[in-house]
Every structure is written in structure tokens, then in C-alpha cells.
Amino acid sequence: KNEVEQSPQNLTAQEGEFITINCSYSVGISALHWLQQHPGGGIVSLFMLSSGKKKHGRLIATINIQEKHSSLHITASHPRDSAVYICAVETSGSRLTFGEGTQLTVNP
Amino acid sequence: DTEVTQTPKHLVMGMTNKKSLKCEQHMGHRAMYWYKQKAKKPPELMFVYSYEKLSINESVPSRFSPECPNSSLLNLHLHALQPEDSALYLCASSRAKGPSNYGYTFGSGTRLTVV
User: Which parts of chain A have pLDDT scores under 70?
Assistant: First the structure.
């Protein structure tokens, strides 16, 4: 079992829909990251969370430390949101452990 | 400056070539990382430098040689690579110590093709 599990693996939505991507982890962490990667591109950090909730534009990220669970929400989704979204957790020594990623496709 | 800059963005090299990848940051981060990412897979850690010293080598073949000449710069020297080494090479940086979160920042990567 991976230390970081993401669901779903693939997600297709229509433009305007509300999207949720989930991340569960089984290790003690110092922080959790949500990352975005467009095809063939580098990684962009969306959020870093150690507690609570953060919002940036149409993106919202939450974390429940007790339940070892985080969610990434996208409101009013747009085709340009199509990308791979990766959950990664910081463990000891600032090492990152990555989930397998969620491929999001938003159709117009 | 809140960026990690990687050059070149794309690199095609032959199996007998020697080339280098470069990564630079000016955020005062004292930990720098090289990751390798194959298509449709998450990044895999290769090397970690902490305060300009190599602290983690994830059993990477010696044809990959990292170098950290100063606190802002990280290089990855490539020699005698194989076609299976073709991948996206990502650099990242973070604070080495301090608050419980380390402020990870990723570069946009170098797309390497070995022919």
C-alpha cells in the first residue's frame, strides 16, 4: 500500500462543474502539498498545508490532520484546469512522498 | 525572487555526449533536490543537497553526477547516458531547517532525450 493514495486516478468533468480530488496518507507529516503539472511541463505548487484550509482563486485545499486526509476543490472548472494534480507529503528531513496523481480533463 | 530556474528546457544528447543541467534559486533555500520523472509517473528523488553537501543519493548510477558549487546553484552532470534515462528532470529547493514546513518550490524541468 502506498503511503500516499489519491482518488480518483482519472476525472472528466464538464466546464463549470465543481471538482474534488482526495488524498489520504498513512505517515506522520509536517506538511502536505498540492501540485499541478500540465502535459510535458514542470510542476507548479498550488498549496502547502499543515492545518485547516487555504483558498486561492477558484481553488480550495483542506486538510484534516487527525483523519490523515486532504481534499483539493476546484469551483467553476475550466478547460485550462486540465492537468495532473499531485498530492505530496513532507516527512522527516523535508523528503517529499508523492501520490500517483489525478489526471483531470475538463471539457468545454 | 520566488522561482527555481532550470536550464536548458529541452536537451537532446547522444549516448557518448557529456552535458550538464543547471538549476538556480535566490530564495535563500539551503536544500536543493534533483528528481527524475518518467511519463505518467510521479517524480522520483535522485539527490538531495543540504548546505551545499550531498545528503541523499538514492542509489543513482554514476553516469549522473550532481554538483552544488554554492548555495544558489545546483548542477547535474550527465555522461554516457542510456536511452532509458530520457525523462523530465526536475529541480526543487526548500528551507533545510526551521518551521515544520519547508517551502518546497519546483522548477519547470529539463526534458531530456537520449538518442
Answer: 1, 93-94
Comparing CB atoms, the residue among B43, B88, B96 nearest residue A94 is B96
Alpha helical stretches, state H, A40-96: none
pLDDT in tens, B20-73: 999 999 999 999 999 999 988 999 999 999 999 999 999 999 999 999 999 999
With CB atoms and an 8 Å threshold, state whether A31 touches B101. yes
Closest alpha carbon to B24 in B88, B92, B87, B78 = B92
Q: How many CA atoms lie within 13 A of A46 on its CB side?
A: 28
CA-to-CA dists, residue B40 to A69, B43, B64, angstroms = 23, 10, 22
Q: CA dist B37 to A62, A76, B65, Å?
A: 27, 30, 17
E-assigned strands of chain B?
4-7, 10-13, 18-25, 31-37, 44-50, 53-57, 64-70, 73-79, 87-94, 105-106, 110-114
**Which whole-number Å values give the CA distances from A92 to A21, A68, B97, B102, in the listed order?**
25, 16, 11, 11
B89 and B109 Cβ atoms separated by less than 8 Å:
yes
Cβ separation A95–B48 shorter than 8 A? yes
